[in-house]
Design brief:
It is a single chain. 38% of the residues lie in helices and 15% in strands. By secondary structure, it is α/β, with parallel strands linked by helices. The protein folds into two domains: 6-44 and 268-358, Aspartate Aminotransferase, domain 1 (Alpha-Beta Complex), CATH 3.90.1150.10; 46-264, 3-Layer(aba) Sandwich (Aspartate Aminotransferase, domain 2), CATH 3.40.640.10. The chain binds pyridoxal-5'-phosphate.
Length: 359
């Protein structure tokens, strides 16, 4: 007999990107850069920071359990009613809330094989069956996913753009996929990186939420530079969102996170600067990788999946010694790959210098 539930015993814990401080401590390094977790290299949104500072002295109070101002502001930006918005402690928590709200014990989750690890991990913690469908040329294969839908399927997770490949589902592909989808299936479009896309055929997902069982997930972690604050949101028709709001914990988004996120939504200047750094950095890295003879997957996000043509864990470990943290793809099952976040010009140049040195 075990104190711990059997399905929990068999789950491997999540391994995130290595923290900067940890590497400094371990190797006695002074100057470390982290290009491992797709964070914003410019720091947090300055408007968010100012709002957080202004709210520090209210920390004796509980946060607003309804997130009134933040939901209202998001709703306005999305052109929906506040009742269509659910706030989360990062979009990670919204994945958890979706499973709690909609998925019965014997119902299944459907997603791709090489995609955001949290879909599988959170589902396993909840003891739900996850069915994965192979990517096709590093892209979600929605036709194949549709064929795998059966009467047990409840939620389909689509990371768009996809982490870790940086590829995306087009408007046409999404529309074809939605045609004739069973009424009892919910499609989650996780758009953590949508602010970085630079293509014309990326779907405007909010156009589909009224007529479909679609939940769109957005986060302040990446483009707004607020990963440490933990705040994200879901947009869905009120018939779905209302019950997610019932299932979530009332104080899941803390007071500073609510204040910071409200202010961040006004920070158009920061968003623009972030986008420029990412798009310029992408051009630079494409060029450098091509010159090195390394293949990569073209990306619409703020990271690049690179085929290093040798063991990715080895490359990761060697780069650590030079103070550069990237992400090996072992957990994802992509052995000869690393994923690198597009950083500032200086960070990208250092990454390229070190990569050249070790391969
Ligand atoms: C980074 C990321 C998120 C954001 O997670 P938060 O919990 O909001 O920080 C969500 N989905 C994907 C695919 C991501 O890569």
């Amino acid at each position: 007999m075990s104190l711990v539930r059997k399905h929990i015993l068999s789950i491997a814990p999540y391994e995130g990107g290595k923290p900067i401080e940890e590497l400094k401590r371990q190797l006695g390094l002074k100057d470390v850069i982290k290009l491992a977790s797709n964070e914003n290299p410019l720091g947090p949104s300055p408007l968010a920071l100012a709002a957080i500072r202004r709210n520090l002295s209210s920390l004796n109070r509980y946060p607003d359990a309804n997130g009134f101002y933040l939901r209202k502001k998001i709703a306005k930006a999305c052109n929906v009613e506040s009742s269509a918005i659910v706030l989360g402690n990062g979009s990670d928590e919204l994945i958890d809330i979706i499973l709690k709200t909609f998925v019965e014990d014997d119902e299944h989750i459907l997603t791709a094989d090489y995609t955001f690890l949290e879909y599988g991990l959170i589902s396993k913690v909840k003891n739900r069956t996850v069915i994965t469908v192979p990517l096709k040329y590093f892209r979600y294969d929605l036709e194949a996913i549709k064929k795998r839908i059966d009467n047990k399927t409840k939620v389909i997770f689509i990371s768009n753009p996809n982490n870790p490949t940086g590829t995306y589902v087009t408007k046409y592909e999404l529309e074809e996929f939605l045609k004739g989808l069973p009424d009892n299936v919910i499609v989650v479009l996780d758009e953590a990186y949508d602010n970085f896309t630079d293509v014309n055929d990326f779907p405007q997902s909010l156009d589909y939420i009224r007529k479909n069982n679609i939940i769109v997930l957005k986060t302040f972690s990446k483009s707004y530079g607020l990963a440490g604050l933990r705040v994200g949101y879901a947009v869905a028709k009120p018939e779905l969102a209302t019950y997610m709001n019932v299932a979530r914990q009332p104080f899941n988004v803390n007071l500073l996170a609510q204040a910071g996120a409200v202010a961040a939504l006004d920070d158009k200047k920061f968003l623009k600067r972030t986008r420029r750094v990412v798009l310029e950095g992408k051009d630079y890295l494409y060029d450098a990788l091509t010159k090195m003879g390394l293949a990569y997957v073209p990306t619409v996000a703020n990271f690049i999946l690179i085929d290093v043509a040798r063991d990715g864990v080895e490359v990761f470990n060697k780069m650590l010694k030079f103070g550069v943290i990237v992400r090996d793809m072992k957990q994802y099952g992509l052995k000869n790959f690393i994923r690198v976040t597009i950083g500032t010009k200086k960070e990208n140049e250092r990454f390229v210098r070190v990569l050249k040195k070790i391969i």
